[in-house]
Amino acid sequence: MVILAPSILASDFTVLGEQMKQAEEGGNDYFHFDVMDGMFVPNISFGLPVLKSVRRFTSKTLDVHLMVEQPERYVDKFVRAGADILTVHQEACAPLKETIEHIHSLGARAGIAIKPGTDIDVLRPYYALADMFLVMTVEPGFGGQKYMDVCTGKIKALRESLDENGLDTDIQVDGGITRDNVEEVLSAGANVIVMGSSIFKGDITGNTRYFSELFKKYNCSGRVSS
Ligand code: DX5
Ligand code: ZN
């Protein structure tokens, strides 16, 4: 199943609700919610009050990406604020196994993210635990960056490794995904596609519909594993 997750970081926050509605008219599956603390990444975005408002506004899955040092400190608050999926960075979370288990104990799904420079081998101990692996395709911290081609091989290697272990865990990609490179990441084995600029710049409904229609083709053809 290929999933479309617009990243609201790229939206115009003065009309966030309207723009989310426009995306929903185009058929998105999730909303991706980028939390940045200015420590793990050199940027600050938004947090719990905004998530609570967004939660009241949409019934879509809220896919929260914590680009935060020691994210374990905030798991309870983000799940209570409405996160359906909570993804923490392997590089930022020392008690990773306990944090994933805690997210599950709260009834949410748990993702583990790795930066472009982090090897997929660090994910292996969590294969049976995590619901999703996020392979960052830009350095985290900013929207509107260029896709890092070197990440395609990582996506492919991770999908092959999961297949070898009989797992169809979701692989999410995030950063610089456009109409020109989306089929490259789909063919490599990614199936949860985050896009900010490619959705929220220009015709939001039209952009969302374009990708939603494309992903339906993949879902029917089964060309993407899992
Ligand atoms: C970057 C964020 C991404 C970003 C995607 O740190 O994690 O979700 O908002 O935006 P685009 O699709 O514009 O690269
Ligand atoms: Zn993100």
Overview of the structural elements:
There is one protein chain. Helix content is 36%, strand content 19%. It is built from 8 helices and 8 strands. It has an 8-stranded parallel beta sheet. D-xylitol-5-phosphate is lined by residues 7, 9-10, 32, 34, 65, 67, 138, 140-145, 174-177, 194-198. Zinc ion (ZN) is lined by residues 7, 32, 34, 65, 174, 194.
Notable features of this structure?
eight-stranded parallel β-sheet, binds D-xylitol-5-phosphate, 226 residues, binds zinc ion
Quick recap:
With 226 residues, this protein is α/β, with parallel strands linked by helices.
Main beta sheet: strand number and arrangement?
Answer: 8 strands, parallel
The side-by-side strand order for the widest beta sheet comes to 1-8-7-6-5-4-3-2
Determine the strand fraction and express it as a percent band. Answer: 15-25%
Q: Got a strand count?
A: 8
Structural class: alpha/beta
Strand and helix order: EHEHEHEHEEHEHEHH
Q: What would the average pLDDT be, to the nearest integer?
A: 96
* Intertermini distance: 6 Å
Q: Which small-molecule species are bound to the chains here?
A: D-xylitol-5-phosphate, zinc ion
Radius of gyration, in angstroms, nearest whole number: 16 Å
pLDDT < 50 stretches: none
What is the helix tally? 8
Helix content bin: 25-40%
What is the global morphology? globular
Topology:
Elements (H helix, E strand, L loop, with lengths): L2 E4 L9 H11 L3 E7 L11 H10 L3 E7 L7 H7 L3 E5 L6 H10 L3 E6 L17 E5 L13 H15 L5 E5 L7 H7 L3 E4 L1 H4 L3 H18 L5
Parallel strand pairs: 1-8, 2-3, 3-4, 4-5, 5-6, 6-7, 7-8
Bound molecules: D-xylitol-5-phosphate (DX5) and zinc ion.
